[in-house]
Amino acid sequence: MMITMTDSSVSRVAVVTGGSAGIGAAAAEALAHDGWHVVVAARRLDKLTAVAERIGGTAVELDVTDQASVDSFAAGLDRVDLLVNNAGGARGLEPLAEADLEKWQWMYDTNVLGTVRVTRALLPRLRESGEGLIINIGSKAALDPYLGGSGYNAAKFGLKALTRVTRLEEIDAAAGVRVTEIDPGRVATDFSLMRFDGDEARARAVYEGKENLVAEDIAEAIRWVASLPPRVNIDSMNIMPRDQG
After folding, report:
1. Which GO terms fall under molecular function for this chain's record (predicted)?
2. What is the CB neighbour count within 10 angstroms for residue 22?
3. Per-residue pLDDT at 163
C-alpha cells in the first residue's frame, strides 16, 4: 500500500485509527462521502477490509501499541492531510485500591502512547500537506471523573493534556498543523463490551433505558471539523446525549 502525493486519483488523504467498527468506521464513511480517500487502520483486518470496500478506501492493519507496526504503517503513506486518532478503549472498573496494573498499562499504552506513536510518525506528512489536521477522540471521562473509571479517567486526562500541548507546539511550527479534541459522552457502540471482558449482558445494561448517542453523531462532528477552511481550528468539542449531565 502506498498513497502518494502525485497519485492523480487521490485528492485528500485521511487516516482513521480504530477504523474497524464504531466511531472509527462511521467517521471513515462520513469522510469518504465528503471526497476524502480514507485509510482505515486497526488490528482487525477482516472488519477493516469490509469498511474499506464499502467506502472505496484502503485498509491497513495497525497496532498502535506496537512501534514496529506504526513504523511499517507510516512507511506506506506518502501523503496524509488528516489524522483521526480514534484507537482507544477502557478495561475494568476496579477502584484504585484494587487497580489491575496490566489494565491500566493497556489503557495508557493505547489511549495516550498509541496517539503519540501514530502522531509522531505521521506529523511530517501532515506538515507537508499545508492544511494538516489532527482530530483526537477523547471522552467525557477526560472532563468528569467517575466511580469505577480511575484508570480510564487517568488515560483520557492524559490524552487531553497531550492534545493541548500538541496544538501549542504546532502554533509555533513553521508548517503548523491544526489540532482538535472531540470528547463524546455515552455512545452506544461495542466500547462497553471490551470494558466488561465480553459480557454482553453487562455491556447492554450501560445503555438500556437511556437516550444514547450513536457512532454517526460523532462521525458527523469529525466530518464537520475536517470540512472547515484551514484558517479555522476547533479547539475542543463536548458532545453528550440529551439525558447525560
Report:
1. oxidoreductase activity, acting on the CH-OH group of donors, NAD or NADP as acceptor
2. 20
3. 98
Residues 6+ apart with CB under 8 A from 9: 37
Residue 7 lies in a domain: no
pLDDT at position 28 is 98
**Which 3 state secondary structure label does DSSP give 24?**
helix
- pLDDT confidence of residue 172: 84
**Active-site annotation, residues:** 152
3-class secondary structure, 62: coil
Residues of the chain where predicted confidence (pLDDT) is lower than 50: 5-6, 8
Residue 53 CB-density burial (10 A; 0-12 exposed, 13-18 middle, 19+ buried): exposed
Q: What is the pLDDT of residue 5?
A: 44
Residue 72 covered by a domain? yes
> What total number of domains does the chain contain?
1
Domain-located, residue 245: no
Residue type, 91: R
pLDDT one-digit tens code per residue, 118-170: 999 999 999 999 999 999 999 999 999 989 899 999 999 999 999 999 999 99
Residue 106 falls inside a structural domain: yes
C-alpha cell at 72: 511499517
- Grid cell, residue 38, equals 480514507
Q: Given CA atoms 140, 145, 147, 153 in this order, what sign does their dihedral have?
A: positive
Q: How many whole angstroms separate alpha carbon 226 and alpha carbon 83?
A: 10
Domain hosting residue 229, numbered range: 12-239
DSSP count for the chain of H helices, then E strands: 9, 7
Would you state the pLDDT for residue 207?
74
CATH number at residue 23: 3.40.50.720
Q: Which residue reads 466500547 in cell numbers?
A: 191
Burial status of residue 93 (CB atoms within 10 A of its CB: 0-12, 13-18, 19 or more): middle
